[in-house]
Amino acid sequence: MASGRLDKTLESVRLDKWLWAARFFKSRKLASEAISGGKVHLGGARVKPSRAVKTGDQLEITRDGYRYSITVQGLNDKRRPAKEAQLLYQETEQSIRAREQEQQLRKMNNASVHQSDRKPNKKERREMQKWRNR
């Protein structure tokens, strides 16, 4: 991206590089692991990290329990500021609504969980560990 615009000279970019440049993952390694782990689909199919992405491709990305359905709008192989990275893709309205509903549901579920004022002491940690191992 030269001076805040999309790079028009690129015809395709590696998928892991594009996900990193679009700021879906903090590193290319994390992007590659997500792709290899089946968390990223291109056109509904599982792909490899080296797969080329072109403008207009449809991606489904699962990250942190949320699912993003996006269309690639631009290409870049360099990580730029978040404002510029947002120009690289367009998320579908349906995806946005589903993610917002999931956030509301998680908020409501977490509201009923008691949050302690302090960290558990050694005895309480041991009891919690015993409970988890059952």
Short description:
Helix content is about 40%, strand content about 20%. The protein is an alpha+beta fold and about 130 residues long.
Keywords:
5 helices, two-stranded antiparallel sheet, single chain, 134 residues, alpha+beta, elongated
Q: Estimate what percentage of residues fall within beta strands.
A: 15-25%
CATH architecture: Roll
How many distinct helices?
Answer: 5
> Would you identify the CATH H-level superfamily?
RNA-binding S4 domain
Unreliable residue runs: none
CATH topology: Structural Genomics Hypothetical 15.5 Kd Protein In mrcA-pckA Intergenic Region, Chain A
Structural class: alpha+beta
- Number of E-state strands: 7
Number of domains: 1
Cα distance, first to last residue?
53 Å
What would the principal axes of the Cα set say about the shape? Answer: elongated
**Mean pLDDT, all residues:** 91
Give helix % range: 25-40%
Strand numbers in spatial order across the main sheet: 3-2-5-6-7
